[in-house]
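STRUCTURE REQUEST FORM
Protein name: DUF1801 domain-containing protein
Source organism: Fictibacillus nanhaiensis
Requested output: structure tokens
Priority: standard
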Amino acid sequence: MYEQKTKETDQSVVEFIENVESPKKRDDAYKLLDIFSETTGFEAKMWGPSIIGFGSYHYKYKTGHEGDAPLVGFSPRKSKISLYFAPGDPTRDDLLQNFGKHTTGAACVYINKLADIDEDVLKKLIINSVAFLLKTYPQE
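Status: completed
Returned output:
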């Protein structure tokens, strides 16, 4: 049976951020922590060894695969900062047009540094992602 790798843990978010090697990336991680916390109203939790997530939802696909994931989150990785938003959110692509310097993956948006992006657009991405996931996967 499939075992979900990325689960909520009891690891300290601050301890994780303090171990980020780059001082600039560490500063950006603390700023992102504030932005995500204030925008979502959720407490930051570690998901797996390296994702800082906010809130959670339970998903179940038609295939029967199910699990839990953070509503939104980020990870200050070595090369780039990964921002996690809802896959499938129909507003994402339009918002990203005014976001600033970034690249995208399936569920991730990658940035080099916080100074490269528009923080107001980031807040809209967070709000829309949370709303989309809560509507798509209502809490039971």
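Reviewer notes: The longest strand covers residues 72-76. Residues 23-40 form the longest helix (18 residues).
Form closed.
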